[in-house]
Amino acid sequence: MPALSPLNPPIRTLLGPGPSDIHPRVLAAMARPTVGHLDPYYLQLMDRLQDGLRQLFRTTNRMTFAVSGTGSAGMEAAVVNLVEPGDPVVVCVNGVFGARMCDVAERAGAKVTRLERPWGEVFAVDEIRNVAAAVKPKLVGIVMAETSTGAYQPIEPIAQAVHEAGAMILVDTVTALGGVPVEVDAWGLDAVYSGTQKCLSCPPGLAPVSFNERAMDAVKNRKHKVQSWYLDASMLASYWGSDRVYHHTAPINMSYALYEAVSIILEEGLDACFARHDLNHRALKAGLAALGIQCAAQEGFQLPMLNAVRVPAGVDEAKIRSELLARFGIEIGAGLGAFKGKVWRIGLMGYGARPANVYLLLAALEQLLAEQGRPFDRGASVAAAGEVYSAK
Amino acid sequence: MPALSPLNPPIRTLLGPGPSDIHPRVLAAMARPTVGHLDPYYLQLMDRLQDGLRQLFRTTNRMTFAVSGTGSAGMEAAVVNLVEPGDPVVVCVNGVFGARMCDVAERAGAKVTRLERPWGEVFAVDEIRNVAAAVKPKLVGIVMAETSTGAYQPIEPIAQAVHEAGAMILVDTVTALGGVPVEVDAWGLDAVYSGTQKCLSCPPGLAPVSFNERAMDAVKNRKHKVQSWYLDASMLASYWGSDRVYHHTAPINMSYALYEAVSIILEEGLDACFARHDLNHRALKAGLAALGIQCAAQEGFQLPMLNAVRVPAGVDEAKIRSELLARFGIEIGAGLGAFKGKVWRIGLMGYGARPANVYLLLAALEQLLAEQGRPFDRGASVAAAGEVYSAK
To answer: Is the Cβ of B329 closer than 8 Å to some Cβ of chain A?
Structure first.
């Protein structure tokens, strides 16, 4: 029986749409000794992790915890708990993840109204107010940080409009959390989900979620059982709540990693963390502009942590990506769906959002573009980024 | 904003029903540098991991991979893919996990016939043949290693009876895999699922699964979409298959851990690994017998890796468990459901199945029982275990 060849992953600089560069403290946390899922230490850790997640989400929601799956499991957990067969639901679609939410909601038996905007654009309050008035949905789902397009959707006024229409709002904060303010309580968000592998700089594998009282009431007053046993929030509430009733065996070491990741953000301070994301985004954007590269998302609505940028005409985009990886160990993302072959997705997320990465990427990209015969002043992109940092 | 207190998990010896003692190489693998989920290295790792899992399951099934969730997500993945609303399904229930499978199948819309046996007993072929003839199920679900009772269910003859009735068989191998033979191809098992935190000695977080061609045909010929987007096997087949179509972001570092865990087993050799589990089980059983402690499961059908044993009369079982943890750092499991307060569950799983752990547990248990005034020869349990090892 042949054993497997040794595990020797290459060292990458992860500047794609996630997983992001993992903080070394988080990697070390993964390797700490495993304890049982009902060990007194682990139960205490769950409490503290919940406290930390509440701080990230800026909420006092009791039901704030980590789903034992990736961000997509978080999406599914939110949808299948809040939606029952036949419920009218509005989903806002301007990229891959809104489309995914439609699919998830339809599989849960929802009557889905799909509100669309072109890729890279964001939704205006009025169009959501209109569709909510017409459909009278139970739930409106929207993506705050569309990882496929780099569009930064303002949430607060939309939450207000959704509530005025009597519906609940579910917000995808997978890429947003830890990179830009996510104000669950101040904005009155009924349910949110996120992932670990974006601005938390933790490997993929858990999905932080939060449900407010109204959402939990909807769960408690369901007519049908939640279709997923694994994601049933009422059962998960008994495990994550004070009862600690065994449900499933939690991913212990992934929890260690998330705990450490959350702690690192709280040590820096959330506002400082947001400011750092913004600064590095502006430096990158200035550097890319010097290379003739522009953001794909609507001006004024561009995410700091996920820069979807248009590939310049005449450039072999796949070759640039593969050479960044092969020659520099840098991963950036390709376009998905409508943006396939047209954009690169450059993540500056969490620990990855730092000048060293901005300079490295600009220098490498400049060299590769020059090799493909693009005309520009060598060194200008790094210089442009430097000016942003110096002006801070 | 208060940061979280430092992460300092205590060092435990995990001899409960899982998570089991994690091999140090597996913990180290968790902390290796994260790469992207579409990185050429990761795609190659997925291929090799699938090969390794095929060896563990003793199958050539193309659809052999790891679900991005814990063992219960593996159960749900198997059920929701194979079952459509209204499908007749038989589930064999002689403990917690059979009962869980009923719940999962009912949530998937199955018409579930629940075949019951008392806790600790196993099913006979005839009773399954009879119920299959009466119900004409699409699927029969059964647990091979019932972690709540320690019962070791023979699978091969049941698989044959199920197939004669025209149904598919789904086998829960969560605790079995890596500890006793799981012969997916030789026994003709249509679908199996497992977990990482039992005999693979890997932290919880992934669920190895395997579907044969017949099961995948059932998935392909479904009338309704699979209710779970996250667990949809046809979409997962495109990611784990040669297309590598992005579905969700795989838990990269958990995959490293599983890869290393599988490799360790293949290096030892599966048969040697089973023999080691058996030997340590016999040593433990002999030692426990010297303490007057007997297995709870039916004689002749006792699992080697999970020893559910009856708490002697007059012993404060919770006190013993808490003192094992507090004074010796040893975790053993409490009874669940019908066995609550009546049994201890002692796991000797994977890396945990070794003489050092057997001796440690016997010595500690003997001391604590003596402190509670139990009469027996001090040292007899360790001596009895030693005789088993010496006679090998």
So the answer is: no
Report the sign of the C-alpha dihedral through residues B114, B229, A218, A69, in that order.
positive
Cα separation, B42 vs B76, in Å, equals: 26
Query: Which CATH number characterizes residue B352's domain?
Result: 3.90.1150.10
Chain segment B28-55, per-residue pLDDT in tens? 999 999 999 999 999 999 999 999 999 9
Interface check B73 vs A, CB under 8 A: yes
pLDDT for A191 beyond 90? yes
Q: Considering the domain boundaries, does residue B307 fall inside one?
A: yes
Q: What is the pLDDT of residue A1?
A: 60
Say whether both B112 and B244 belong to one domain.
Answer: yes
Q: What are phi and psi of A57, to 5 degrees?
A: -80, -5
**ipTM exceeding the 0.95 mark:** yes
Distances (CA, A) of B174 to B19, B98, B142, B184, B209: 11, 12, 11, 14, 10
Q: In chain B, whose CA is at the least distance from the CA of A41?
A: B9
Q: Tens digits of per-residue pLDDT, A193-215?
A: 999 999 999 999 999 999 999 99
Domain that holds residue A372: 269-391
Say if residue B57 is in the same domain as residue B175. Answer: yes
Residues near A232 by beta carbon (within 8 Å), at least 6 away in sequence: A81, A225, A226
Residue of A nearest to B85 (CA): A227
Coil, strand, or helix at residue A302? strand
Q: Is residue A262 part of a domain?
A: yes
- Cα–Cα separations (whole angstroms), residue B253 to B42, B258, B318, B367: 10, 9, 36, 40
Q: How close does chain A come to B298, measured CA to CA in Å? A: 26
> A324 and A215: one domain?
no
Can you tell me the distance from the alpha carbon of B332 to that of B160, in angstroms, rounded to the nearest whole number? 36
Stated pTM of the model: 0.97
Within 8 A by CB and 6+ apart from A367, the residues are: none
